Amino acid sequence: MSGRIPSSTQLQSFGPLSYSGNVGLCGPPLTRKCPGDERPEGQHLEEHVSDDDDEFPRWFYISLTS
Asked: Model-level pTM greater than 0.70?
């Protein structure tokens, strides 16, 4: 097996020792980070906000006023 251990599954209930011998696995609950987990220095995670993220689309509000 190789790759990231899926989150939100029964696999997360196992401790790190359960995965010993599977050197291709990465991510929690292991301490081995997966490729791509590291951000380049100076790069920050920013929240992206756009009109498309609204809870209700514009057409909904327009239809209420018509």
From this structure: no
